[in-house]
Amino acid sequence: MLLVEPQASMQALNRLINQLQPAGVLLTGLAAGRPQVTLERAAVNIMDFSIPDNAGGQYQDTPVCAEEDVPAAYLSSLPLRPILAAWREAGIPGHISDTAGLYVCNVVMYHALHELRLPGRPEVPCDFLHVPANSWVALSVPGDRPPLPYLSQEEITRAVQLAAQTMAQPEMVTVAA
Questions:
Q1: What does the pLDDT read at residue 1?
Q2: Active-site residue numbers?
Q3: pTM for the whole thing?
């Protein structure tokens, strides 16, 4: 599990990638308020937080990667349409989103894709799934606000498993952000 803080998340992700040498990486993060599982098409090289992260940082117009000549965005390297079709066949609501947003989930996706494409590394498929709240999270909304939309934890788990199976990779790493 990664912290909701850019630097700590990137460092932990580096350690995991280097230790495990995965054949595929499937990252997940919570998108409370969404009613379905979401495949992210792209991650952008920018942090622009509307709320502070867990360390109190609130970045604006800050690059994820400050190196010169890095792409403005990375595209997912997973088979998005086949994963979406597998979800629909299994009765799991899902869709494809154009970007992972500008918060820590985007940082994690961008950083993972950047690290996995460094020279000398084998080509490794990677993507980010935003998952909706489960019932415990959705129903524990403070105050008089209505509960969030949610999927059961079983459905969320099935969605992640189907995405991993559709990747058809012998070794798979799933990291929750």
A1: 78
A2: 40, 105, 130
A3: 0.89
